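REQUEST FORM: STRUCTURE PREDICTION
Request ID: SP-0412
Submitted by: Lab K.M.
Chain count: 1
Length (residues): 245
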Amino acid sequence: MIRIAVANQKGGVAKTTTAVTLAHGLALKNYATMLVDLDPQGQCASHLGIGQGDGVFDLLVNGPTLRDVVRMTGRDELWLLPGSKRTRTAETLMVVEGLGCRTLGELLGERINGGLNYLVMDTAPSAGGLQENALWCCDVLIVPSAVDHLSLEGVREVLATLQALRRPRPPLVRILPTFYDEVTRESAANLAALRATFGECVLEPIHRAAVLRECPAMGLTIFEHDPESRAAGEYAGVVWGVLDV
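STATUS: Completed
RESULT:
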């Protein structure tokens, strides 16, 4: 099983869109995939058109089997471990009890008895807690980054957090430029800055697209809402990139 963390310490960078779309894309390739929503906003469920749940809280606090907390998504090969506002409470309890950054990985490892090909973890746009847990246990780290003037700062922050964990084997890191607008000089300049700083780690950009903004309200991914769109093709490229790892 390959564990993928989608993380940035800056909000509004299409992090949840990326996590949900990647997870569904892998499922469409017939790989058993579980999406884990570690963000207290719990928006992965909304993106998939299903209700929020306390799955992450229950897993961390009450220790049930995954079968009791994982939800069907109505899509073949795709399951969701949902999050909610109570996820923040679970993070607080982890700190009070002195649980470290290995907790989530160990819990998931204990409760997943084979059968999954990919685990995709969406994280909150803040350092510490469950984001550090996801960074510790992931095999691949994808950092969505809007191509604006704060993009380099947000990427540097999450990579600094990763480095501070001192993992024996760091994950493969890929930076995904989002909200790219080829008409504006600012987008082109910031994309060039990302590539100059991080080189081959930078993936092809996801263009700004109204069709992507429509998806959450419809409870559909881009592969369902408009599979022939440029946005769908660009995210399909991200999926293929993960499969090549």
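NOTES: Residues 15-28 form the longest helix (14 residues).
Reviewed by: T.R.
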